[in-house]
Structure formats: structure tokens, C-alpha cells
Design brief:
CATH architecture: 3-Layer(aba) Sandwich
Radius of gyration: 13 Å
Number of domains: 1
Distance between the termini: 22 Å
Shape: globular
Largest sheet: 3 strands, antiparallel
Strand content: 15-25%
Number of helices: 4
Number of strands: 3
CATH class: Alpha Beta
CATH topology: GIY-YIG endonuclease
Oligomer: single chain
CATH superfamily: GIY-YIG endonuclease
Length: 96
Amino acid sequence: MEKRGYVYIMASKPNGTLYIGVMSDLLKRVWEHREGVIDGFTKRYGCKTLVWFAVFDRVEDAIAREKQMKEWRRAWKVRRIVEANPDWHDLYPTLS
């Protein structure tokens, strides 16, 4: 059986700095971003709020989508967030 994959967007604040990532264990990875346990972009820019995510049946499909989304203009990314989460609520509590 293939692993599921998740594409997700973390934000520093509403309309703030955005980070797009992909992972097969979304709960664990978002926790790592929130706690700052891994040095990198999200720790440096304070991207600790999960504002959007999508589930894929195959991790390879999630990786392909992440690559597409990283090429998008910022306005497209913000529009994707606002369509699903207009108040930019933290979705992390919904994962458990």
C-alpha cells in the first residue's frame, strides 16, 4: 500500500510569510515547525501556523503538486488559503 502525502502551507501570521511543504506525516511535521526543532526557513521566519493543506493518495502526487505550487504567484497561494480558510485559523488542532 502506498503512503498518503500532504501538501501544506504554514504562515507567520495572516497575509504574512508563507512556506509550502510536503510530507507523509503531517501531524509530526507541523509539530516540528511549531516547536522550531529543525533549523530552516520556517524557524527563521516564524511560520508556525498551519493555514492550508491537501491530502493525496500517493506521496508522489503530493510532491508534484508542491512543486507546482512553489511556482505560483503569491496572490494565487493567498487565494487558495482564503478560499478554504478565510480567517487564517490554525488548522493544527484539527489534525489530531
